[in-house]
Write the structure tokens for this entry.
Amino acid sequence: DPHSKSYFEMKSGLMVGRYQDAHTYAKSQSYKGTAGRLAIIKSKETQLFINRIFRPSTETWIGLRLTCRPRSLVWNTGEVINRETDYTNWGLQWHYPDKFIPCSGGRGASGGNAYNGLFAGIALIPYRGVIRWWAVAPGHGMNRALIEYPAGKP
């Protein structure tokens, strides 16, 4: 991707399903000596590049998660998203900044158990022809992950 200066790879048919499994799998991958990670999408340009090149057609894990303690959206690098100023690409339920899924009862977004304070993993999900980010319970099974190999500074 010319904007992020990263290489991306869509992995499908994985024997991992949960967010944590996909995260571990991505870290075990490498390209040209660069360690992989679940993809970080910090700009509209990178999102459009991913949509154009990979055309995600089913649920696909990315490197963003919602944690309960503290309640925040965190990239797998540890960077916290500022929901007021940072790029986001939410599906309708999180489109408005004042709407935020509460962390109550230690349960995941779809009613599944939280994993070590992880309330939800974030996935690319096509909906009516548009690729958006959606919160998904961390135990929800998916067999696709978008892996990024950061190659330089954007």
Remarks:
- The first helix runs from residue 19 to 27.
- Confidence is low (pLDDT under 50) at residues 95-100, 105-116.
- The first strand starts at residue 6 and ends at 12.
